[in-house]
Task: structure prediction
Amino acid sequence: MPHFVFEYSANLEGRLDFQPVFKALHEYIVSTGHFPLGGVRSRAICCDHFRVADGREDFALINLNLKIGHGRSMEIRQEVAEKVFAIFCEWMKPITDNSYCQISFELTELDPVLKFNKNNIHALFK
Result:
């Protein structure tokens, strides 16, 4: 943990370069001291089937869900959420300055009993 999961409308395909935002988000989240580098991962999923508002073809959407493990205070979660959303919105500026796009973000804290994972990458960063 944490996981950054982007879902975006297909009409944004080819207009977004995810590697710079992945890098910025990874660097920020690790810099907080609350998340281990070996657990950070990002992915982007293109949604071929979508509808925004009244269905205009040029309306776009992008959603970011940051999934984190249980145990951080509300203060830390809020601070992280605000900064992540700021990084996300700044990265989206070339799109939102020139076209219509709905941007959404949610930080999700996963249940400690119902979350399972196995990660052999952590050992590389100790």
Q: What stands out?
A: Helices lie at 18-31, 74-96. The beta strands are 3-9, 41-47, 60-68, 101-109.
